[in-house]
Amino acid sequence: MTLAIILLFIVGYVFITLEHALKLNKSVTAAALGAGLWALIALVEEHVEEALHPVAAETFALVVFLLSAMTLVEILVHYRFFDVLRTKLYSLGLNDYRQLWLISGMAFIFSSVLDNLTTTIVMVQIAHRFFKGKNLIIAAASIVLSANAGGAFSPIGDVTTIMIWLEGKFTALEVIRWGFLPALALFVVSTYLLARQLTRNTPDAQPTREEKVALSSSEKTVITATFISFSFPLIAHVLGLPPYIGILFGVGMVGMLIALFVNIRPKRVSHLSMDIQSLLARVDITSLVFFIGILFAVGALEHVGILSTISNTVFGATPEVGRLVVGNVLLGAFSAVVDNIPLTAAALNILNTTDPLIWVLLALSVGTGGSMLVIGSAAGVVAMGMVKEMTFKNYIRIATLPAALGFVACILVWSVEYFFFL
Hints:
The chain is mostly helical. Helices cover 74% and strands 0% of the residues. The chain contains 21 helices and no strands. The protein has helices at residues 2-17, 19-22, 26-44, 48-78, 81-90, 96-110, 116-130, 134-152, 159-166, 172-195, 217-229, 232-238, 243-264, 276-281, 285-303, 306-314, 321-334, 340-350, 356-368, 378-386, 392-420. The protein starts with a helix and ends with a helix.
């Protein structure tokens, strides 16, 4: 039975990896894989339902958190926060070099609160208006690297970091305290190296005139409340509650606020006319199905003892720090060719340590290692679809070396923190 589970998992993983070539959505494969593995277990074991309870609880916590966070992001998009941001940037009239640093810096900051996909989409849209040719590829690559780096040091900034945080491997303060400087080092090194490749003899970009976005006081209130809601998971954690309770409360609070303004001004035509149900309908449910399937699949591997066997084989029963560090770095490099979500889910059960800084290193590694290839992160894939000039070959030629050197800088800064300042 164990051999059958391993073979089925490998086949499913190959299908997920070849999603685009097979034209088969990875969410469908993950759902079938997760359910199929547990069906195999049920054929030879009794009381499987009891073993499913902890897996279901872990999955529930992650899905509720992500669903709530994605809803809040959709609220920001609908109420034109990013449109306001775009018009502000247009009015500055910066040249390519300064604009690259500004947009990359904003991607780094925003992705620590919002998901890196939304951050990448918004910033690449802005980059289209400022850059052209090779400079546009450089800008898009820098946005991808910055967004991935920014999400890695925040407990709510990236799916992989959220997964590790919800498992209680580190606190919010620990990942921010020990993850910020390594992530910042990656951002600075990679952006500097990319900026050096900009073509300087092109004229400064002059964006076309943009229609001014005017927000009502009610819309500004909704946007402010939405940003405040992103702090609620941290407050809930301090109170001893699961983080998803906090962000779920935030969605409810903002939803009631929207309903209040709609009822107060029912005849006024504005973006407030859309209710929370319509905003929820915009959430990418397929990505949530993918997370569910992967977590159930990894839970099945853990249940039959495969992951513990791998852990003992690779790291030993009492692993040394050096082996854990090397293992995490290799996982980060591996995430450039393999989806980092199943990698993280497996690592949560393979890494046999309670040291929170080792888990911070895992968040940094799998969160940023994928940036070395354009297909290694969701942000990279999205950017490639938005910038036709950003091919796999062009990304390697322009961005792989800056990404790799930034990754090395990230690991070095973490190592200095761990071995000299802990």
